[in-house]
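Board notes (copied after class):
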Amino acid sequence: MDSLYEEALNVLKIETEWIREAGRLAGDSFSAAVETLADAPGKIVVCGMGKSGHVGRKIAATMTSTGSPAYFLHPSEGLHGDLGLLRRGDVALVLSKSGETEEIAMLLPCFEKLSIPVVAITGAGDSLLYRAADVVLPLPPLKEACPHDLAPTASTTAMMALGDALAVTLLKLRDFSPEEFAGYHPGGALGRRLLTRVRDMMYSGPLPAVDESAPLSEAIAAMTEHRGVCFSVDDRGRLSGIFVYGDLGRLMRNGTDVLSLKFGDVIVRDPVTCRPDELAAVAAVRMEEKGITSLVVTDEYMAPVGVIYLHDCLQAGLK
């Protein structure tokens, strides 16, 4: 095996071990950390210096986008005026491997003055941050992936993982819905996938409905005009069956005299459908899983109201 690749695998092994051990150590305090963050009526203030600060920015962004309003407070900037952002009712999430970072140490009395509880992710059990924090998620006493045990590597990976664990647990605790998530991500491909409904993508008429007593040739003509799909309804207007090009191909391969058949002889009963208010991306996944290229859209009474096509969903970037 290539020696460079072996070195890469070793780094991944070390970082995996850090995450695994950090998860084990968090067992005694993780619930308390989540409750402390969730109970605060204000915002979550995330702090960290250097590499821990970069990780803190990402954690704050993840929390904010998943229903837990947070912002990153750079410790140095905080000591030069940005402490004005703090409010009673906030809660602090402080990241520091050593727990003795000078700027962090200078912030702690400010948190205490405003009665802001502190949740710490730190590695030193006797550090200033460890002693001052209300809840601690301890980092394991392991060596960094850096061969000199100097550059923050595995420790910041573990911080990131713990931050994600906090954010996702808060999301579930607050029952943060996909619709709320979509509201926070209206732009780009993600916004399209989360905001576009079937009703926004479906073809709504005239629909390719064919009477079951009609000859199959009539259904074939309807399919040709409607991108390879047609269907039938019962006497109450409810979807009773569907027929697509794939079904026609199977009949022809079997040597069936298709022109002698009635439409009702060949339709597929109980077809896969979707509803207008479903996410179009979910409908696209359903079509791909079933190996089909269209779905009949039905209302609450199973009456057809449209047809949605996989090609249109893919072209709109919904997958």
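Comment from the instructor: The two ends are 37 Å apart (CA to CA). The beta strands are 44-48, 70-72, 91-96, 118-122, 135-138, 229-233, 239-244, 273-274, 294-298, 304-309.
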